[in-house]
């Protein structure tokens, strides 16, 4: 299997090249094209603890699709699947190794090799107050993982502590811990400055952040849209 990242300005996509025996899975709405010898099996049953109808509902709360799509070849010829995120921004391939899983936040999970496991981690009050989603998608096993960002994606090597504004976290190695805290010295200053909550990461590992916050964009855009008709 080979994954080709296709940069085109602000609109990144990925082309997954499949060889006989390869299988790949993604959010059901991510595919925009596929070769004629690729079988697409859509269900709510990915591999791992996030399977079943309850898993599908949790994925919706995490910002991902209720359904998952699995791609495999129908013959012994190579094939390809084109995948793209909903929001414009970068797409990146992560090489996940055994024993070092990744946590994907807020709809940033795009797809992974089918032998890998996906699980849903409940974030509790941190997810509610931070502006992140209630569930993170945890991806484990060896293979390729695709994540997407809104805007530009940057990889940061955390060694100690790092503070990131909520809504800008894409994915991070599960060895990193984080806590919710205020941006400034006091809560009043934080909210008056428009910052509010931030996430403070601790430990050693890789962290991917995005330059733009989709929820902030949505809230500003929503003010200019006509009211919904009932």
Describe this entry's structure for a reader.
The structure is a single chain. The protein has 230 residues and is mainly beta. The protein has a domain at 2-150: Mitochondrial biogenesis AIM24 (Double-stranded beta-helix, 4-Layer Sandwich), CATH 3.60.160. Helix content is 14%, strand content 47%. It is built from four helices and 17 strands. The protein has helices at residues 52-61, 124-130, 187-192, 214-222; strands spanning 2-6, 13-18, 23-27, 31-34, 38-43, 68-73, 79-83, 91-96, 102-104, 109-113, 117-122, 135-140, 143-148, 153-165, 169-173, 177-182, 197-210. Strands 9, 11, 12, 14, 15, 16 and 17 form a seven-stranded antiparallel β-sheet that branches. A six-stranded antiparallel β-sheet has the order 5-6-3-10-13-8, with no helix packed on it. A four-stranded antiparallel β-sheet has the order 1-2-7-4, with no helix packed on it. A hairpin with a 6-residue loop joins strand 1 (2-6) and strand 2. The longest helix has 10 residues, at 52-61. It is globular and about 60 Å long. The chain starts with a strand and ends in an 8-residue tail after the last helix. The mean pLDDT is 84.
